[in-house]
Amino acid sequence: MSDTTTDFENEDSFDFTWLRDSGEEMTEGKDIQAAEHEDRKERPLKVEEVSEKKYKRRSKKKRQRVEDYVRPSLAKELYEDVKTVVIAVVLAFIISTFVILNAKVPSGSMRNTIAVNDKLIGNRLAYVFSEPKRGDIVIFKYPDDESQKFIKRVIGLPGDEVVIQNHAVYVNGVKLEEDYIREEMLTAQTAVIYHVPEDCYFMLGDNRNNSKDSRFWTNTYVRRDQILAKALFRYYSGNDKSLAFKWLNQKQEYDV
């Protein structure tokens, strides 16, 4: 064999420095990454920071999509609230104008059936398909001043002859049995006679001795178109100053 050797065969002449340095560098890189990982483990991010960072990392298109969703949702919610309020107001107006009449009675002309400050509900539709009957308690426009509303009992119907004498009321010659009046009615010494015109009604209060009714009005009779509602029930008692239910228009039986 030849005495000459290549550099690779001559171990003394081969430089391993580059390999050693490279290995050290690799080791150092791994140590740095491990240290950073440990640092992150020791210092966890707050939920708010994570959420904020995630939101910031979203693309502009995604953020715009979220904002476009939120704005219509708020607008829709506001629209629904406004719509609900408007519908409620409209329904309340329709019901109070065309269906029921809510009334407070300021006088004692209907005692003991209705007391002072009683609150009651009237049915505006009661006479759409029928006519007022004798004994009905009705709410109507005061014939001498239609800006005021009165409540009385129907006594005389169109075409009736009403006679008041001897502490009683006679309709077409028949005495009315009235167990609802507060006390015996005071009458004049002579009979007072009324002839009820067509399409009109003769009204009296149940508190006959303290009632401003057809006996004393300038315009004696209530026209059909002045009647607003039939009283249904009392829901508030002026005497007790509390809620108290009472039917008002119990059917009255007359022999007329």
Question: Describe it for me?
Answer:
The termini are far apart. The protein contains three helices and twelve strands. It is an alpha+beta fold. It is 30% helix and 24% strand. Strands 1, 2, 3, 4, 9, 10, 11 and 12 form an eight-stranded antiparallel beta sheet that branches. Strands 7-6-5-8 form a four-stranded antiparallel beta sheet, with no helix packed on it. Strand 3 (137-141) and strand 4 (149-156) form a beta hairpin. The chain has helices spanning 17-42, 47-57, 60-98, and strands at residues 100-104, 119-123, 137-141, 149-156, 161-165, 168-171, 174-175, 192-195, 200-204, 222-223, 227-237, 242-247. The relative contact order is 0.12. The chain has three domains: 15-42; 47-97; 99-247, Umud Fragment, subunit A (Ribbon). Residues 4-14 and 18-28 have low confidence and may be disordered. The longest helix has 39 residues, at 60-98.
Keywords:
256 residues; alpha+beta; Umud Fragment, subunit A
